[in-house]
Amino acid sequence: MATWVRGGDNGRMAAVTPPGWPEGVPPAHTPGWQDRAVLWLLDQCPPDYRAYTGWRKHPIALAWLTGRHLEGQVGAMRQAWREARVEIGPHVPADALDEILGQIEAEGIRLLAASRSARLLHEALQGKVFAPRL
């Protein structure tokens, strides 16, 4: 059951998605949303995850596992940020280290956003209905 709000000039009803909902995935509880959610979730994981048909058949399990995978990736980026200067700093030019650190930061931000999106999908697959904020 989708949450609907009046939207646009024509007064039609539109489904609500919370901030952080993954781009390209229709609002929860609308036709076809779970199929698109599964594709999005698989895109966040290693390619080998596509071989496990049980996860496709049970998207809630895939969302849960994807969340764990992304949390691990966020942790890896945080650790890389902490260790980069010591571990690779002596082996690359200073400007390269700055570039590398900037890219680690950018990837960490991307992963945090993806982790939030995976949590939202997991909640929706558990039946949560998102309401608009006032």
TrEMBL record:
Record organism: Intrasporangium calvum (strain ATCC 23552 / DSM 43043 / JCM 3097 / NBRC 12989 / NCIMB 10167 / NRRL B-3866 / 7 KIP)
Designated name of the protein: Uncharacterized protein
Region annotated Disordered, chain positions: 1-25
